[in-house]
Amino acid sequence: MRFSPKTVGTASxxxxxxxWTSFIVIARASADPSRGATLTPFDIALLRILGASSILLxxxxxxxxxxxxxxxxxxxxLPWRITVLTGFFGGLLYAMLAYAGFFFAPAAHASVLxxxxxPLWTALLAALILHDRITPARALGLACIVAGDLLVGGAxxxxxxxxxxxxxxxxxxxxxxxxxxxxxxLARKFALDAxxxxxAITTFAFITYVPVYTLLIATGAVDTRLGEVPVGTVVFQALxxxxxxxxxxxxxxxxxxxxxxxxRSTMITALVPGLSALGAVLxxxxxxxxxxxxxxxxxxxxxxxxVRAAGVRTPVSVATNDRSTLGMAGKHxx
Length: 334
Fold this sequence. Notes:
Layout: H1 5-31, H2 41-65, H3 80-104, H4 107-129, H5 136-158, H6 166-189, H7 194-218, H8 231-269, H9 271-284, H10 290-311, H11 315-320, H12 322-329
Helix pairs in contact: 1-3, 1-4, 1-8, 1-9, 2-3, 2-7, 2-8, 3-6, 3-7, 4-5, 4-6, 4-9, 4-10, 4-12, 5-6, 5-10, 6-12, 8-10, 8-12, 9-10
């Protein structure tokens, strides 16, 4: 059965938004200690890497063997230097920081601070590394994002003196967004294909995180609950966090870009902060405060404003800045 391009594009957009939204809600539900979480954040990161590797490493090996990619270690379809650079930020640090953040802060904060910070960090890094120009219109959009982040994260930072821990999660979310922005800018700098880049960063995460974390578990240096949970929990986390959040959403995001274009796609993914915040309220019972609502509105407005500013460029300009706009969207995968 063959589907029309419109059907494929629309289905890809729906799948991408659903997975990105679910990622935030499920990660918080899995890592929140107050809910009797059965896995540590680093256990979840391990299952994410293993789940993605089960699909992407054989795919990478096939690309290398077929001669369509230069290859490193017979698995990564990119040279070793690019694999290490992109994998360190996009494959290793991002997962560790994001899941650790869910241990301290609610999903509603992640909804604002992770997708909301991505355009900010990406624009600043692109200006610094790629010498992109920040137009007044984009600067206004970024200012809205900063205001929204401060409205949400600023309150928890002020409570740090009272012994609260939410601020730790907020900072971890911001750091995770920064790491993915570095990856996005590097992907643009090296003109990387989305699929090969995703295989490469997963390869690096696998060869570094998996053996080190396994050794730490074996020596008792870190606590793990992998042996205490039902097999179904382990399988679910590997499938959703790895296969779903990394592999499937990476492919559907690429398909969405092909049909809707980078600007319209970014406007579609601007739904994620609001939907994930709403999901946190409905499924996790998190409160929706006035400051959170205000921050959510400002961040969403900033993203949409920045995208509309990018959309008024000439077709040539848009074509040459596709990867920059993808950086505004934030990710090839969550």
